[in-house]
Protein backbone atom coordinates (compact mmCIF):
# COMPACT_ATOMS: atom_id res chain seq x y z
CA UNK A 1 0.00 0.00 0.00
CA UNK A 2 1.28 3.47 -0.86
CA UNK A 3 1.75 6.01 1.89
CA UNK A 4 -0.14 9.26 1.89
CA UNK A 5 1.82 12.49 2.03
CA UNK A 6 -0.32 15.21 3.53
CA UNK A 7 0.00 18.95 3.55
CA UNK A 8 -2.61 21.49 4.49
CA UNK A 9 -2.19 25.02 3.26
CA UNK A 10 -3.43 28.16 4.91
CA UNK A 11 -4.18 30.96 2.48
CA UNK A 12 -4.65 34.46 3.79
CA UNK A 13 -7.27 36.56 2.02
CA UNK A 14 -8.02 40.03 3.30
CA UNK A 15 -10.48 42.64 2.18
CA UNK A 16 -8.98 45.20 -0.24
CA UNK A 17 -7.14 48.02 1.49
CA UNK A 18 -6.35 46.07 4.66
CA UNK A 19 -2.71 45.09 4.58
CA UNK A 20 -1.48 42.44 6.97
CA UNK A 21 1.38 43.03 9.33
CA UNK A 22 2.00 39.75 11.10
CA UNK A 23 -0.13 36.64 11.08
CA UNK A 24 0.27 33.98 13.73
CA UNK A 25 -1.46 30.73 12.90
CA UNK A 26 -1.57 27.04 13.63
CA UNK A 27 -1.70 24.53 10.76
CA UNK A 28 -5.29 23.27 10.51
CA UNK A 29 -6.04 19.60 11.16
CA UNK A 30 -7.18 17.62 8.13
CA UNK A 31 -10.51 15.92 8.92
CA UNK A 32 -9.94 12.15 8.96
CA UNK A 33 -13.01 11.34 6.85
CA UNK A 34 -11.86 13.78 4.14
CA UNK A 35 -8.39 12.26 4.26
CA UNK A 36 -9.76 8.71 3.92
CA UNK A 37 -11.75 9.77 0.84
CA UNK A 38 -8.98 11.94 -0.66
CA UNK A 39 -11.15 15.07 -0.55
CA UNK A 40 -9.63 18.55 -0.92
CA UNK A 41 -11.46 21.80 -0.31
CA UNK A 42 -11.62 25.19 1.39
CA UNK A 43 -13.63 27.34 3.80
CA UNK A 44 -14.03 31.11 3.46
CA UNK A 45 -14.90 33.19 6.53
CA UNK A 46 -15.87 36.74 7.33
CA UNK A 47 -14.63 37.88 10.74
CA UNK A 48 -14.24 40.91 12.95
CA UNK A 49 -10.60 41.53 13.87
CA UNK A 50 -10.27 42.88 17.38
CA UNK A 51 -7.54 45.39 18.32
CA UNK A 52 -5.55 42.59 19.99
CA UNK A 53 -5.54 40.59 16.71
CA UNK A 54 -8.09 37.97 17.78
CA UNK A 55 -11.17 37.14 15.71
CA UNK A 56 -14.81 37.50 16.69
CA UNK A 57 -18.14 37.14 14.86
CA UNK A 58 -16.78 34.30 12.75
CA UNK A 59 -19.20 33.54 9.92
CA UNK A 60 -18.71 30.98 7.16
CA UNK A 61 -19.39 32.65 3.81
CA UNK A 62 -18.84 29.59 1.63
CA UNK A 63 -17.15 26.21 1.75
CA UNK A 64 -16.38 23.51 -0.77
CA UNK A 65 -17.34 20.77 -0.49
CA UNK A 66 -19.98 22.16 1.81
CA UNK A 67 -19.71 21.04 5.44
CA UNK A 68 -16.65 18.79 5.07
CA UNK A 69 -13.99 21.15 6.44
CA UNK A 70 -16.16 23.69 8.32
CA UNK A 71 -15.52 22.53 11.89
CA UNK A 72 -11.77 21.89 11.40
CA UNK A 73 -11.37 25.32 9.78
CA UNK A 74 -13.29 27.05 12.60
CA UNK A 75 -11.04 25.35 15.15
CA UNK A 76 -7.91 26.42 13.25
CA UNK A 77 -9.17 29.99 12.95
CA UNK A 78 -9.67 30.17 16.73
CA UNK A 79 -5.91 29.65 17.09
CA UNK A 80 -4.91 32.35 14.57
CA UNK A 81 -4.01 35.89 15.41
CA UNK A 82 -3.83 38.78 12.92
CA UNK A 83 -2.08 42.07 13.50
CA UNK A 84 -2.93 44.31 10.52
CA UNK A 85 -0.77 47.41 10.12
CA UNK A 86 -3.85 49.62 10.35
CA UNK A 87 -4.80 48.12 13.72
CA UNK A 88 -1.53 48.76 15.53
CA UNK A 89 -2.53 51.17 18.26
CA UNK A 90 -6.19 51.06 17.20
CA UNK A 91 -8.95 50.67 19.73
CA UNK A 92 -11.83 49.78 17.39
CA UNK A 93 -12.59 46.36 15.84
CA UNK A 94 -12.29 45.95 12.06
CA UNK A 95 -15.40 44.32 10.62
CA UNK A 96 -15.76 42.36 7.37
CA UNK A 97 -12.26 40.87 7.13
CA UNK A 98 -12.26 37.77 4.92
CA UNK A 99 -10.09 34.72 5.55
CA UNK A 100 -9.81 31.50 3.57
CA UNK A 101 -8.41 28.19 4.78
CA UNK A 102 -7.63 25.64 2.06
CA UNK A 103 -7.08 21.92 2.47
CA UNK A 104 -4.92 20.20 -0.13
CA UNK A 105 -3.35 16.76 -0.27
CA UNK A 106 0.28 16.64 -1.31
CA UNK A 107 1.07 13.72 -3.54
CA UNK A 108 -0.89 10.61 -4.37
CA UNK A 109 -3.87 9.70 -2.28
CA UNK A 110 -5.28 6.19 -2.09
CA UNK A 111 -8.87 6.11 -0.74
CA UNK A 112 -9.45 3.59 2.03
Automatic annotation (TrEMBL):
<dbReference type="InterPro" id="IPR003538">
    <property type="entry name" value="TonB"/>
</dbReference>
<keyword id="KW-0812">Transmembrane</keyword>
<comment type="similarity">
    <text>Belongs to the TonB family.</text>
</comment>
<keyword id="KW-1133">Transmembrane helix</keyword>
<feature type="domain" description="TonB C-terminal">
    <location>
        <begin position="15"/>
        <end position="112"/>
    </location>
</feature>
<dbReference type="InterPro" id="IPR037682">
    <property type="entry name" value="TonB_C"/>
</dbReference>
<keyword id="KW-0997">Cell inner membrane</keyword>
<dbReference type="InterPro" id="IPR006260">
    <property type="entry name" value="TonB/TolA_C"/>
</dbReference>
<keyword id="KW-0653">Protein transport</keyword>
<keyword id="KW-1003">Cell membrane</keyword>
<comment type="function">
    <text>Interacts with outer membrane receptor proteins that carry out high-affinity binding and energy dependent uptake into the periplasmic space of specific substrates. It could act to transduce energy from the cytoplasmic membrane to specific energy-requiring processes in the outer membrane, resulting in the release into the periplasm of ligands bound by these outer membrane proteins.</text>
</comment>
<keyword id="KW-0813">Transport</keyword>
<dbReference type="Pfam" id="PF03544">
    <property type="entry name" value="TonB_C"/>
</dbReference>
<protein>
    <recommendedName>
        <fullName>Protein TonB</fullName>
    </recommendedName>
</protein>
<keyword id="KW-0735">Signal-anchor</keyword>
<keyword id="KW-0472">Membrane</keyword>
Amino acid sequence: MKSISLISIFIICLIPGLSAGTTIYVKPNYPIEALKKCIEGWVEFEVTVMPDGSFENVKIIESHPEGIFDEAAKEALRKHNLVPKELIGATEPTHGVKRKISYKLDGECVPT
